[in-house]
Amino acid sequence: MAPYNASLRVWRGDVSGGGLQDFTVEVNEGEVVLDIIHRLQATQTPDLAVRWNCKAGKCGSCSAEINGRPRLLCMTRMSTFGEDETVTVTPLRTFPVMRDLVTDVSFNYEKAREIPSFTPPKDLQPGEYRMQQEDVNRSQEFRKCIECFLCQNVCHVVRDHEENKEAFSGPRYLMRQAELDMHPLDTKERRAEQAQEDNGLGFCNITKCCTEVCPEHIKITDNALIPMKERAADRKYDPVVWLGDKIFRRK
Ligand code: SF4
Ligand code: SF4
Ligand code: FES
After folding, report:
1. Residue 81: count of CB within 10 angstroms of its CB
2. Separation of CA 51 and ligand 3 centre (Å)
3. Is ATP-binding there in the keyword field (predicted)?
4. 123-153: per-residue pLDDT in tens?
5. What number of H helices and E strands is found in the chain?
6. Which of 36, 192, 200, 208: disulfide with 168, CB 3.0–4.6 Å?
7. The model scores a pTM over 0.90
8. Pocket test for ligand 1, best of 160, 221, 228, 229 (most atoms within 8 A of CB)
């Protein structure tokens, strides 16, 4: 592919407001959107704010919206778009803008702190933990999360409803509850119920938008949220499951 000039539209501004600005930036073979943003920064807008670290899809820092779709800047190839197409890059919409493409994602850190941490049995020391491979495999998928917050950003429960933010932890942290609820060595009781009562699991109407944007292809809805909804409902409404839980509750 010969180098070409792409039309780039980038949101610039800060907490007091801003708007889209148009630029023309050179694109070379194999480049990703982050390369183009860096070239823009190097040649035309040295003060453009953009957050990134690894440029390998692993740190989760470069999340933004490209043509309205939440994506990682470093994992989106320019070849995804036509050479005559305008590529519009805007900050994550669900979180407050700090400057240009950088948003304040502290909502997510607050929600992370609300999830009780892994609570192993008191009599087991690190190094003595043993799990079935089947249990390891189940939670392995969730451990691939790079905390890019694209799922948190796209979820309609908070995307257009600032008022829901207090009551809703978002798919990433509901998934964390699900992961620990499935963990055979976690002794914290009633995680699914807590997800329902305290973390807003009931707000989720399984639209799967979170799953669609996850760059790690984690099946957030099918493998974490739906099973946890079922467990919460079983324990609440099925007397046999309720009794079994009472009798066989892990010590
Ligand atoms: S499936 Fe649930 S958590 Fe995921 S985007 Fe939809 S409402 Fe939000
Ligand atoms: S679950 Fe996927 S989309 Fe959500 S924060 Fe983790 S890696 Fe990002
Ligand atoms: S720069 Fe690390 S995920 Fe994009």
Report:
1. 17
2. 8
3. no
4. 988 888 888 999 899 899 999 999 999 999 9
5. 10, 7
6. 200
7. yes
8. 221
